[in-house]
Amino acid sequence: IIAIGQTNGFAVLPYLRASCQNSVPSCPNDCPSHPNDWPSHSLSLQSSHSQSDNEASTWELQSTLTTITSPWLTIHNERLKDGGTLLDYWRVEKDDSAVIVTIHQGYFCFPRQSYRPGVGRATLDFPGGKIPPSSPLDGSSDDDDENVEMVQRQEVASNILKSELGILDTSRPSSKDDIYADFYAINAQEGYAINSSFSNQRLYGFVAILRDEVVLDTSRLSYYKEFPATVRGARELLVILPCLQCRILLLEWVQGQLLLLVDNDDS
């Protein structure tokens, strides 16, 4: 079902009401304000996982031909065997990344545009940065480690946001969490593969809604209070937002807003 109209030109992803109710977990806070906590991939078919696992089992690593390391990444040249065929592949290991869709006083917030060597120019982006790998806990279960990793990722994302937006020390309440009206993960359990054929890097998305009284250093911001945090504002932002990671997380946020509209219409 594709719904267009009151969505300001956005198409609602093909959610069936029954599928949503049966497949999407409820918000851990038991409230409707975190629609993006609902992973869209939860609607995928179980059979697709077993098929992909069988396909992956036919690939065997034969040897590592070259490894190049740097503080930023590690590059491997590996020889793999697919059935009876030998194939040489290059593979990159990188830290995972975090992007935080940030809202302050009803507007999307962006740090000052930074020069990106990959494209040779400064670009507009949401606050973001890398998430270093976490260390497993001694004597802990896999579930414990996973929960710790989620908490650590959220803490790293929060620190990235504060640094990039230049949140003034004089505006910080006694508790660091008090700067947020809300802070939640878009894909807490499993990050999105950024380029699965070439890299292990995953993207973790967050939404941060700052309290209105938080003071921002506007000299460190771009497009301050130019794009309202609405579906229409997001559509206008997409016209100039070049970062694919930022765009997909913005669309995830939009999807959540549209689901709230559907829920409100039903109620």
Fraction of residues in H or I helices: 25-40%
Low-confidence parts: 1-33, 35-48, 169-175
* Helix-strand topology string: HHEEEEEEEEEHEEEEHH
Q: What form results from the Cα inertia axes?
A: globular
Number of helices: 5
Condensed summary:
This protein has 267 residues and is an alpha+beta fold.
Descriptive report:
The protein is α+β, with helices and mostly antiparallel strands and about 270 residues long. It is about 25% helix and about 25% strand. The two termini are about 20 Å apart. Mean pLDDT is about 80; it is low at about 1-35, about 35-50 and about 170-175.
Strand and helix layout:
Elements: H1 17-23, H2 46-56, E1 59-69, E2 74-82, E3 85-93, E4 96-104, E5 107-108, E6 110-111, E7 114-116, E8 121-123, E9 128-131, H3 142-165, E10 180-185, E11 192-193, E12 202-210, E13 221-222, H4 231-238, H5 244-266
Parallel strand pairs: 4-12
Antiparallel strand pairs: 1-2, 2-3, 4-5, 4-9, 6-13, 7-8, 10-12, 11-12
